[in-house]
Amino acid sequence: MRPLPSAAGIAAGVLALSVTAVAPAAAHDLRTAEGRAEARARVAGYQPAWLHADRSTGAAVPCVNGRAGDYPCKNVDLLSHLPVSALGGGTEALSMWYWIDSSTSREYAVVTRDNGVGFVDVTDPVNPKYLGNLPSHGGTTSGWRDVRVHRDTAYVGADGINTHGLQVFDLKRLRGVTSPQTFAADARYDRIGNIHTIGVDPAANVLHAVGSNTCSGGNHMIDIADPLKPKNLGCYSGDGYVHENIPEKYAGPDTEHTGKHITFNYAVKNFTIVDVTDPRSPKPIGKGTYPGASFIHQGDRTPDWRYVVQNDELISTSSGSPSFVWDISDLDNPRMVRTDRISGMRATRHNQYNLGNRMYQGAYNAGLRIHDSSKLPGGYGEVGFFDVHPADDSSGFHGAWTAIPWFGKGSVVAVSSIEGGLFLLRPTGAARSSAAR
């Protein structure tokens, strides 16, 4: 475990950006033997039929008797499917985010790929429309790309490419597009090279790029108040390499911290909470870990700010791949209160986001998994699933990368599948969120 630094160390770490290359987590770093082995495992596991799968649009496929067409399911219908080949090219779909145009109410999936970003109008989720491609900066390719949207602007980073920087794209350019386009970025922030993941605090107009070649792999904070002119704000390097983070304005039960801008950092061996109200002088608040922590990867909180559900990307056992539940009612002292497994399901758990009383998780080979988050810490039962990778549910890095539950006023979930592309799904019955309208 890497301890939090001294106050002097923190002060020194935030005065200037460190441009020294650091060693990001090996499981996701093409510069390490482990990262290259992971990439080779992905390629070896490809199924050509998946890479060239036909699209499924025009009619929903209900989940009946545990199947929606070729896909195992429970309480989740298939609305449509676009393969990677229909998303702008490349061989892999990766991370994804969403944009809901406040002027037109149209909805868009922003899907990253190994060689760029595809924009898809999903306003009609049964008939999604591909609008165009933003190529990777310099024509580069990476197995790890991330995107976040703030207001009407998308911000794109890529790992393993030290010259990529942060691409900036004005999403309003998608309005009125009638045939697929190849777009150029509107701007590029070049005070950073490779980026593993991105978080945005919308209330602060601050973007956090983590897992990069700056800030010892920690939080590189960027002012995006002027969306096409990002400006450096500072670093938080007290956690070392951070794999994922979710920054936001705190509005939970710990009144000591009400109104502060904080970030939840998932830092491989530790889950940490940091006060970033002043990006030039961030302060650690709380920190936790657990025996056997292997790769504390990502998580999300419940709406009441009392619990965070977190995954560990490298733990999978015969008794199931676990989710870990933290009690965060006291930010200074996050406590592990539950470990939950689906018996016999060894698939690696990946990115997850909560909406209302449901947690939506991309679980690689096991596809979309939906959990009841309303009974925490007493229970965390699975209430639905849709397996975008029906070949197997073993551990490994195929299938569902992420699940985005905010389309269709909370009634439509978009899943990016590494080999399969974009799936638009509708949870039903017990899998439907209380926040869906």
Automatic annotation (TrEMBL):
Q: Which PANTHER family match?
A: REGULATORY P DOMAIN-CONTAINING PROTEIN
Recorded hits in InterPro entries, A to Z, give: Choice_anch_B
Which GO cellular component terms are attached? extracellular region
Q: What is this protein called?
A: Choice-of-anchor B family protein
**N-terminal signal peptide:** 1-27
- What UniProt keywords are attached to this protein's entry? Signal
Q: Does the keyword Magnesium apply?
A: no
